[in-house]
C-alpha cells in the first residue's frame, strides 16, 4: 500500500467513527437497537434509520398510529445484508423515506426463526423466491402485502414511496390483499391428522430413495445442481439406510459425497471447519460464512461415517472441525458462538467476501518456497483451483496415495509436508483482519454442537471431546434452562431475553439422550424427559397431532407455524418424533411411541415425491419397519462394554447401562452380583443375557 501507516490508521479511525484526539467512538446516529444484544441488530444501531427490535409494544404502537411496518430480516454473517446496509440503511436520504412512512423493525432471523418462517413463506408466495436480507412491508397488525430481498438504493426508495402512497390512497385494496395472503399463509401450513393410512413401509422407502437417487451427482457428490448445500441430514439418513439395508451403491454415493466435501474449498484446509455452501458443482468456492449449526452436524456425520468406513480422512475432518470451533467459537463459559462472517477486510481496507481465506500464487511462492511444487499440485494452484482476481481457493481432487506416487515420496512424508505448509499459511493468515464474530449463543445450535461432540467421542474415542461436551451441557443447564424446565433461545454476556422454540427443545432432548448413551449418567435422561413433557404441554397441537414451533405462552403472529420439512437443520417436528420414539424405549407406558408414529403418518404422503426434504423423518421409517435394539448393560464393567459397543455404528439401537439396579425399566431386575451382563431386547422382549461384546453383536443383525 502507498499510504504510510500512521495516516492510514487515522483514516481507519475516522471511518470507524473515532475521534483521534479523544480516542472515544462517536456516532452521528443511534437508534433503539443499541439496547439489544444480537450482534446483527447492533450492527444497525448507528444507522440513520429509526430501527426498532421486534417487540409487542412496537406492533401495538403501529396499530395506534395506523403506520405501515417495514420489517427487515437478516443475520450477522449475511453478505448481501451488509451490502444493502451500506447502500440503503446507512444513507440519510433513504432513512428519511423509511422513517417518514414506516415503523422500521430489524430482526435477527437466528434469534427469531418464528417470525422469519412466516415472512419467508410470504415472500415466496409473493415472488416465488426467498433469501436474506428479507424485506417485508406489512399492515400495522403484521400481515404482509409486499416483499423483496436485496434491492438497490434507487429502486428501494421508489418502491417504498409508492407503497406508502398506495396505502394512503387505496387502503381497502391493500388490506384485502394482505387478508388473502394471510389466509394463504395459514393454508400452506396446515397438517392433517391422518387416521386412515398404513405406515410407510420399506418397499415404499426403497422406491422413494430410488426416485431421489436420480438427482445424485455420483462423480462430485451431493445433488446435480449449483449452488451445493451440504445437507447433513440427507447424507446421515443415506448412511443409515445404506448400512441397515445393505445397499453398497448408496454407501458408495455417501462416501463420494463426504470425500468431495472434505476435499473441496468448502472445507477450510488451513484452519478447519466448513463454510455455509458452495456456489459451484465441485464444492470449490464457498459462501464463506462459517455457521455453528453446519459444523456441529457435520462433526456428527463424519464421526459416524468414520465408524462405518474407518476412513482416516473422515477422522481428520472431525478433529480439525472441532479444533476450529474450540479456537474460534468457544466461549470461556462453555457455550459456543453462532458464526463467523463471510466478509473481512482485504488489503485495501474494504470489506470483501472471502478475503481472509484466499491466496494469490505470489503469496504462496513467497511463503512456501521450494515446497510450492508439491503444494500447488496437492491443492490445485492452477486453473482448477482459481477463483477470481488471481485468488485461489484450496481444493483437492486426488488421494494422498496418488500424489505421493507422482512425486516419488511416501504418503507419510507427503502428509508431513502438507501439515507443515498449512501451518505456515495459518500463521500468515492470523495476521489478516479476521471475519466478524457473531458471539450470541443459541440453544438449538449449541445442542447440535453438543450432539456432534458426543458422537465424536463415541466413535473416535477422544476423552477431550467428552470433557468439552460435558462443559457445554453444564453451560446449557446453568444458563439456558429456567426453573420450570422451560428454555431460553438466546444468551449473550449474561443476558437471555427470548423464550425458546420447538427447535431448541427438540435438538436439546436429542443431545441429552445421546449424552446419556456415552456417560450412562441418568441426569441427562431426566433432563430430556422434563424437556419432553414441557414441550408436550406447551407446544403440542391435539388437532393435528403435531407440535407448534412456538409455545402457547408466547405472542402469536398471523399463525402458529408447524414445521415439517427437513432443511439444512432437520425440522423441529421430525427431531421431536425421533426423540419420542427413543424415549418410548426408555420410558415405557408414557405414550411417546404412539405420538411419534402418528406424527410420521401425518407427513408421509410426500415422501415418495421429495424424500430429500424429509430425510430425518425417513430415519423413523427405518426404526419402525426394522428391528430396533434396546441394549441393556448391567454390572461392574458396564461402562467399558458400553464404550466398545457404542463405538460400533448401530443406528437402530439405544444403549442403557448401570452398575446395579436403576429406575429405568429397561435396567430393572437385571443384576447378577459380580457379573456384567448384556441384554439385547426388541419391543421390551429380551433374549437371554450374554457377557461379551462379541455375543451382543451376534444377536444384532448387522449387514
Automatic annotation (TrEMBL):
Pfam families on file: Glyco_hydro_76, Thioredox_DsbH
> Which GO biological process entries does UniProt record here?
carbohydrate metabolic process
Gene3D superfamilies given for it? 1.50.10.10, 1.50.10.20, Glutaredoxin
Q: Which SUPFAM superfamilies has this protein been placed in?
A: Six-hairpin glycosidases, Thioredoxin-like
Domain Spermatogenesis-associated protein 20-like TRX residues, every copy? 30-182
Q: What is this protein called?
A: Thioredoxin domain-containing protein
Tell me what organism the protein belongs to: Flagellimonas aequoris
Amino acid at each position: 500500500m502507498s499510504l504510510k501507516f500512521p495516516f492510514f490508521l487515522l483514516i481507519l479511525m475516522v471511518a470507524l467513527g473515532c475521534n483521534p484526539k479523544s480516542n472515544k467512538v462517536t456516532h452521528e446516529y443511534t437508534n433503539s437497537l443499541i439496547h439489544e444484544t444480537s450482534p446483527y441488530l447492533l450492527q444497525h444501531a448507528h444507522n440513520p434509520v429509526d430501527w426498532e427490535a421486534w417487540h409487542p409494544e412496537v406492533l401495538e404502537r403501529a396499530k395506534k398510529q395506523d403506520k405501515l411496518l417495514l420489517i427487515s430480516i437478516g443475520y450477522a454473517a449475511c453478505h448481501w445484508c451488509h451490502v444493502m446496509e451500506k447502500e440503503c440503511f446507512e444513507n440519510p436520504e433513504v432513512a428519511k423515506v423509511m422513517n417518514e412512512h414506516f415503523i422500521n423493525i430489524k430482526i435477527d432471523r437466528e434469534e427469531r426463526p418464528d417470525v422469519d418462517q412466516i415472512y419467508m413463506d410470504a415472500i415466496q408466495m409473493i415472488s416465488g423466491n426467498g433469501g436474506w436480507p428479507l424485506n417485508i412491508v406489512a399492515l400495522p397488525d403484521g400481515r404482509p402485502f409486499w416483499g423483496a430481498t436485496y434491492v438497490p438504493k434507487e429502486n428501494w426508495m421508489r418502491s417504498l414511496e409508492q407503497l406508502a402512497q398506495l396505502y394512503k390512497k387505496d387502503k381497502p385494496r391493500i388490506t384485502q390483499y394482505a387478508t388473502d395472503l394471510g389466509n394463504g399463509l395459514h393454508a400452506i401450513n396446515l397438517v392433517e391428522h391422518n387416521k386412515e393410512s398404513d405406515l410407510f413401509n420399506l418397499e415404499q422407502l426403497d422406491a422413494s430413495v430410488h426416485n431421489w437417487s436420480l438427482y445424485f451427482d455420483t462423480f462430485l457428490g451431493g445433488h446435480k445442481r449449483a449452488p451445493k448445500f451440504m445437507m447433513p441430514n440427507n447424507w446421515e439418513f443415506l448412511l443409515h439406510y445404506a448400512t441397515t439395508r445393505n445397499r453398497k451403491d448408496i454407501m458408495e454415493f455417501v462416501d463420494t459425497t463426504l470425500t468431495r466435501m472434505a476435499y473441496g474449498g468448502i472445507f477450510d484446509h488451513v484452519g478447519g471447519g466448513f463454510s455455509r455452501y458452495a456456489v459451484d458443482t465441485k464444492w470449490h468456492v464457498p459462501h464463506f460464512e462459517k455457521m455453528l449449526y453446519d459444523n456441529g452436524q457435520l462433526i456428527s456425520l463424519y464421526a459416524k461415517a468414520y465408524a462405518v468406513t474407518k476412513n482416516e480422512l473422515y477422522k481428520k475432518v472431525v478433529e480439525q472441525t472441532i479444533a476450529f470451533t474450540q479456537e474460534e467459537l468457544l466461549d470461556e463459559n462453555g457455550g459456543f458462538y453462532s458464526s463467523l462472517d463471510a466478509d473481512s477486510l482485504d488489503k485495501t481496507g474494504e470489506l470483501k467476501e472471502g478475503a481472509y481465506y484466499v491466496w494469490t500464487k505470489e503469496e504462496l511462492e513467497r511463503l512456501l518456497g521450494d515446497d510450492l511444487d508439491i503444494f500447488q499440485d496437492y491443492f490445485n494452484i492452477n486453473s482448477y483451483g482459481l477463483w477470481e482476481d488471481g485468488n485461489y481457493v484450496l481444493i483437492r481432487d486426488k488421494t494422498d496415495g496418488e500424489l505421493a506416487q507422482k512425486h516419488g515420496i511416501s504418503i507419510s512424508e507427503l502428509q508431513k509436508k502438507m501439515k507443515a505448509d498449512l501451518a505456515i499459511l495459518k500463521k500468515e493468515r492470523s495476521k489478516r483482519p479476521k471475519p466478524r464474530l457473531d458471539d450470541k449463543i443459541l440453544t438449538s445450535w449449541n445442542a447440535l454442537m453438543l450432539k456432534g461432540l458426543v458422537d465424536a467421542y463415541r466413535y473416535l474415542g477422544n476423552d477431550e471431546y467428552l470433557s468439552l461436551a460435558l462443559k457445554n451441557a453444564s453451560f446449557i443447564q446453568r444458563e439456558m434452562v429456567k426453573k420450570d424446565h422451560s428454555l431460553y433461545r438466546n444468551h449473550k454476556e449474561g443476558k437471555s431475553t427470548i423464550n425458546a422454540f420447538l427447535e431448541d427443545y427438540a435438538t436439546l432432548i436429542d443431545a441429552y439422550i445421546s449424552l446419556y448413551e456415552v456417560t450412562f449418567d441418568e441426569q441427562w435422561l431426566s433432563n430430556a424427559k422434563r424437556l419432553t413433557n414441557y414441550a408436550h404441554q406447551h407446544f403440542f397441537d391435539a388437532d393435528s397431532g403435531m407440535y407448534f414451533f412456538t409455545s402457547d405462552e408466547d405472542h402469536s403472529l398471523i399463525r402458529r407455524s408447524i414445521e415439517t420439512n427437513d432443511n439444512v437443520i432437520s425440522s423441529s417436528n421430525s427431531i421431536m418424533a425421533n426423540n419420542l420414539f427413543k424415549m418410548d424405549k426408555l420410558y415405557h407406558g408414557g405414550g411417546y411411541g404412539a405420538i411419534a408414529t402418528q406424527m410420521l403418518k401425518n407427513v408421509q404422503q410426500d415422501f415418495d415425491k421429495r424424500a430429500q426434504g424429509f430425510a430425518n423423518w425417513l430415519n423413523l421409517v427405518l426404526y419402525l419397519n426394522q428391528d430396533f435394539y434396546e441394549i441393556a448393560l448391567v454390572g461392574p464393567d458396564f461402562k467399558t462394554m458400553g464404550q466398545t459397543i457404542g463405538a460400533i455404528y448401530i443406528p437402530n439401537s439405544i444403549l442403557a447401562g448401570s452398575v446395579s439396579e436403576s429406575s429405568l425399566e429397561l435396567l430393572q431386575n437385571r443384576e447378577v452380583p459380580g457379573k456384567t451382563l448384556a441384554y439385547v431386547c426388541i419391543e421390551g422382549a429380551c433374549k437371554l443375557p450374554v457377557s461379551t461384546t462379541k455375543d451382543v453383536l451376534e444377536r444384532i443383525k448387522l449387514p
